[in-house]
Amino acid sequence: MVLATRQFGMNRGAMSDGRFLYLSRANVEAVGLDLKTGGWLQPGAFASAVDFDSYWSPAALAEFDKVTTDDHAQFQYYKTAGYFQHTPDPCADLGEIVAGTNPGRERAGERTLAVNLGLALEDMAVAPEIFRRARERGLGTWLPL
Q: Which CATH number is 117's domain given?
C-alpha cells in the first residue's frame, strides 16, 4: 500500500507512461493540470475521479473505454443533481466486478475510469496502514464494541 504521493510536473511528456492518474482538487491545482483536452492517458490507463467529475472535460471523458462506480444508484442520483453530465454511464460497479458478474476491464488496452462516490472505499484502503502505524507508535484508544 502506498500512502505517500509524489508530485510531478504534469505535462503530456510526464504522462507518456500515463497508466495511472489520480485526480483531486489539491493535486490538480498544485500542478496546474489542465484536462480540457484529451490525450493524457495511454492505452490501458486507469484513472480515478476523486472529486467527482470536476476536472474532466467532455473530450477527456470520451476517451475512456469503460467507466465504473462503487454505486450505480448513487451515481444516477448525482447525475440528476447536475453532476456527471458528460460522464458516460458506468458499465459496472465494484460489487459486480468483484463477484465476477461483470468482467470490468476486458482488454489490456482499455482506458478505465473509476468514479467512486463514497468515501468508504478510500477509508477502507487506507485504514489498515493507519492502524499499523498507530500501533507502532502506541497511539489511539481502544473502544469497547
A: 3.40.50.720
